[in-house]
């Protein structure tokens, strides 16, 4: 698996103008998904959800994560140890807030999802924690049958 960040933004398949994104998303969704904001910890609707299904990008509907790869990291945001498939997300170097992190974006539309961290000692197959904003996702319980 290659989760090496790129310094440039890849060109997503779905490209809309800022006005089109504003029409499609609520102000809070727009802030997180299009302006790389972060929702408050322990405030998201999917932080503690344990149902089986697929988590999709709220902006474009692309399938991103399976519930079987979700784990409780006690960090205040939904956490996954791997995406549904590596081509579903892209990685960007994020040097904001005086630190170097790896930002995770939807490969289909380029929307900000959260960040990925490694080497934190979680007992997962990848030792990765995809820390994802709930507001960046929708949940499809029917996806569990796929």
The CATH homologous superfamily is named Peptide methionine sulfoxide reductase
The proportion of strand residues reads: 25-35%
Largest sheet: 6 strands, antiparallel
CATH class: Mainly Beta
How would you write the strand order of the largest sheet?
3-4-8-7-6-5
Low-confidence segments, given as residue ranges, are none
- How helical, in percent, are the residues? 10-25%
The structural domain count equals 1
In one word, what is the shape?
globular
Report the span from N to C terminus: 23 Å
By DSSP (H or I, 4+ residues per run), the number of helices equals 2
Summarize the model shown.
This protein is α+β, with helices and mostly antiparallel strands. The chain is built from two helices and nine strands. The chain has a single domain (18-145), classed as Metal Binding Protein, Guanine Nucleotide Exchange Factor, Chain A.
What does this structure look like?
The strands form 2 sheets. Strands 3-4-8-7-6-5 form a 6-stranded antiparallel sheet. With 146 residues, it is an alpha+beta fold. A hairpin with a 5-residue loop joins strand 6 (101-106) and strand 7 (112-118). The protein has a single domain (18-145), classed as Beta Complex (Metal Binding Protein, Guanine Nucleotide Exchange Factor, Chain A). It is 11% helix and 27% strand. The chain is globular.
